[in-house]
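1st attempt posting a full record on here, be nice pls
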Amino acid sequence: MFSKAKDIQRAFSHIRVFTFLVVVCSFLFCCFAVYKSYQLTGQSSDRIFILADGKVLEAYASDRRDNIAVEARDHVASFHRFFFTLDPDEKAIQSNVVKALYLADGSAKKQYDNLRESGFYTSIISGNISQQISVDSVTVDTGKYPYYFRCRASQQIVRATSIVTRSLVTEGHLRTVSRSDHNPHGFLIEGWTTLENKDISSQNRVLRNNPIF
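the predicted structure (as tokens):
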């Protein structure tokens, strides 16, 4: 009688232990499943698919801190291209300047106003002058905020009788702002200053008339 009771008690003990192990294993499995699902969700969020020309291309999202220097350099280069690329067309000049002013603060607007009041843009149009810019280098110090930058570029001014090449060196600081269609990198140039803008070479243009047969 007592042996049967002990067997029953031992059986219940085994059942309790087995049940406890099943519950613990189930809990651990649920935790593992939840962890893996979050991990997969995070990995999938880093994958971006872009549709271009009917093809699906895969891109990867990354933290902005990994690309600050690259984006900052492109922001500065884009600003200078918009501000200094000029053609003898009032609408073209206005379009480029407006794009440039979205990327900078009042320091750029002040320089634009000074050039406009001095008749610079009027002389570009009346003289059929074109101005191109080639950004040679942009250095950005990301170690301290706002980020200091220095831009070195070459300008080519094409007139009817000559081509003048000028060196251009500017500096300023960058602070972060919200991204937009007008400012895709999310930076704003502050305290923009021209350090150097001087002629380095000049050559005459000779236009030859082709004979008419």
